Amino acid sequence: QNNKFAIISSSIRYNEIKRFNMNKSKVMEIISDETLTYSQQVLALARLAESEDTTLKRNPLWIKALQEGKVCDLNEGLAPYRPRYILPDYDLLLKKGCKFLELEPATSLLETCNNLLIFYKHLPSITSYPVYLGNFTDIFDKFEDEADDPLTEKILRCFLKHIDKTLCDSFVHANIGPKDSKISRLILKLTKEMQLAIPNITLLYDKDITSKEFALSSIDTMLATSKPSFANHKMYSKEHKNHPYGIASCYNALNIGGGGYTLPRLRLYEISLEAKDIPDFLDNVLPKYVTLILENIDQRIKFIVEESSFFKSNFLVKEGFVNQENFTGMVGVVGVAECVNNLLGIKDKALGFGHNNDAEELAIQVLSKIEEMVNNHQGLYCSGNNNHYEMHAQVGIDTDGTDDAPGCRVPVGYEPDLFNHLMLESKLHKYFPCGVGDIFKFDQTWTNSKEAILDIINGAFDKGMRYFTAYNENNDVVRVTGYLVKKSEIDKLTNGQQSINNCTIFGKGAKEHGHALDRKIYGKSSN
């Protein structure tokens, strides 16, 4: 018996040493990587520690599914100590200031920008940078009369430059709209002129509220800088009748004063490989993995709320900038296209999803099944979201390759003509109240046809599209899957140089492995 224990103890000790040496090797890789800045090395080391923790005792079936690539935890770590996405109530900051940071309510534009920049530095998230900077139209509303003052432009220029150079992550996101404002137009002008990849920006667009001139100014900037994107404000407002929402990170629609606890995802193509046929997939295989992901979300939320210190001690909670009930769990989905193509036995992507009615109908069945299970699940600690989690069309990660198109998008390079592309996406966006979107790459001829693009957006939104974004083929600032990077920065990284934007490495991977920059170019003459 003693020998048995000795053998077990020896085995445990061996595994500990092996793991230590492995981690030591990973640490050395990080600190010797000349393409990483100092802050990127610090973040990488922190994430390594999170990924190696063993606090959460996960379901062995979940672990097996992770190892087989059928689900993914998006590197959230095994001891979650903060929600993934946080959307503070900036209106409260403007009205009352912040006791913890010793910030008085701002009385000028300069003080407002200064308070915001200080506040931003103390906002946690999965990226360690704020994923929601607030709605600039609302934040700067009381300074509308100062919009024509040259000092206003100078202050806002410094404000945007500061964000780009200190919040070095393209998941940093601001909103504007839906109403028109001089300050927001000035921000659009500076965004186009400065060609910054950070922050990401979304226009909350409602044709009955947003002026045509403001929408056209947004399209002009979007074509030149890949932002702002257009969010269907009418659609999102109906779903957030009891609470204001914001668009954060890539295109995540979440409650202001709350956010998203966690975002694991279903890799539908890999899951489909387990099924004998379509009925087996819909009745047995898919439900198994949806159940697993919902259990995992429950476990992570329970830990964040009950075990970690965030909701007990963080100043954001204590001062009411966020409230626990306004958070929800997010069920990520990728690879819809490849999933239905595989189940239908379609090998040629040019004949599959995006070009095939059977594939489209099957996609609707798949998403309906997931939606049914998610809506029937009683979520934890999300009473402000009717005690339910929500589906999210996850944009993919750089290591996905070509097997998993983001969310419910058509695979890159196989897009149908513009009209059919828009109509397909419009049918599927309804399943993703927590965020979904598509990206359209235009040739330069559209630069002089902004009204035509606005007509396209209006028509698509009327048909049920949630989120639209586009850019010109010759842009330096481009949208990869949901975030923005500069092509010139990807070139730097390719040549062994550092890039200040954390997302450049993701953009490089998405370009090389997923051909994310090779979207079909829509020209006026061909559509």
What's the layout of helices and strands?
Blueprint: H1 2-31, H2 38-52, H3 60-67, E1 71-72, E2 85-87, H4 90-96, H5 109-120, H6 136-139, H7 150-166, E3 173-176, H8 182-194, E4 200-205, H9 212-225, E5 229-232, H10 233-239, E6 245-248, E7 252-255, E8 258-260, E9 265-267, H11 268-272, H12 278-306, H13 310-313, H14 315-318, E10 327-328, E11 330-334, H15 336-343, H16 357-376, E12 390-393, H17 418-428, E13 438-442, H18 450-462, E14 467-472, E15 477-479, E16 484-486, H19 487-494, H20 504-514, E17 521-522
Parallel strand pairs: 3-4, 4-5, 8-10, 9-11, 11-12, 13-14, 13-17
Antiparallel strand pairs: 1-9, 2-8, 5-14, 6-7, 15-16
Helix pairs in contact: 1-2, 5-7, 7-8, 8-9, 9-18, 12-16, 15-16, 19-20
Number of helices: 20
Instruction: Characterize the main sheet.
Output: 6 strands, mixed
Query: What structural class do you assign from the helix and strand content?
Result: alpha/beta
How many strands? 17
Q: State the distance separating the first and last CA atoms.
A: 78 Å
Shape designation: globular
Based on CA atoms alone, the radius of gyration comes out at 23 Å
Which parts are unreliable, with pLDDT below 50 for 5 consecutive residues or more?
1-18
Strand order of the largest sheet: 3-4-5-14-13-17
Strand content: 5-15%
What proportion of the residues is helical, as a percent range? 40-55%
Average pLDDT metric:
90
